[in-house]
Every structure is written in C-alpha cells, then in structure tokens.
Design goal:
67% of the residues lie in helices and 0% in strands. It has 137 residues and is mainly alpha-helical. Helix 1 (5-34) packs across helix 3 (62-79), helix 1 (5-34) packs across helix 6 (114-132) and helix 4 (83-94) packs across helix 6. It starts with a helix and ends in a 5-residue tail after the last helix. The protein has helices at 5-34, 51-59, 62-79, 83-94, 103-106, 114-132. It contains six helices and no strands.
Length: 137
Amino acid sequence: MKVPRDSWDIIQKIIRRYPEQKEEYEELEQEIREGTYHADGQPGGGMPGNPTERIALQLHTPRMERIRKEIYAVEKVYTLLPEEHKKVIRVRFWSARYKNMPYLWMERCVSYKEAQIRRICGKFIKEVGIALGEVGK
C-alpha cells in the first residue's frame, strides 16, 4: 500500500522531530517526577493531595501521550533496522539541523546509491506510519 502524500509529510516531520521530542519528553518527565509542590497561598492549592496522583495526571496529558506514542513508534521501527540502514536514517533525518539531507548528497555518507537510499527511507517512513496508525498495512 502506498502512503498518501499528506500522511507522508506528517510522518517525515514526526521522524525529523524525534531527537528533540525525546529529549523534551525525558526532561519533562524528570521535572514532573522530581518536582516539588509550591504553595500558592490557596487552601488546598487546587492540586491533588497525593503526589503520585499529581505525577500521574501530569504525565497523562494529551500532549505527553502524543509525544510518547510518536517516540515509541520511531524507536520501535528504528531498533529493528540493520546497522547500515540506521546510518541512512540518521544521515537523512537527523544530521542537518533544519531540513532533511538531499538524497544525492547522502551518497557521500553511506555506501548506497540514491535509489537504494530512497527505498530504505520510504520503507522506514511507511513502517513508522503503520506503528503510528497513520497508514494501513
């Protein structure tokens, strides 16, 4: 099954954001778990009295759930790749800071030709889309 163009763009952006999202998620998670309650002068403070409940509520916001799902999908597919394919994905999506590296430039960095690089990246995008539920099998 071919990945629809709009889904392709969304999945590429998710893959592209993966390193920053993972770092942000881990920082937020650590901050929430280690955070202390600050009294704001209000009786009861409007926060759950149990620190475990407070942590659970903050970790399960829609945004945190979305980030967790995206990180899991990318990691799940990436860990199953052969090492040489991982290098292709790293070079394509995570080496340049603000955009994907063009396929033609990648030939210098990896031991594949442009057509094979495109196939590897396309398969990775499709598999991440399936893991996200963005694309059917």
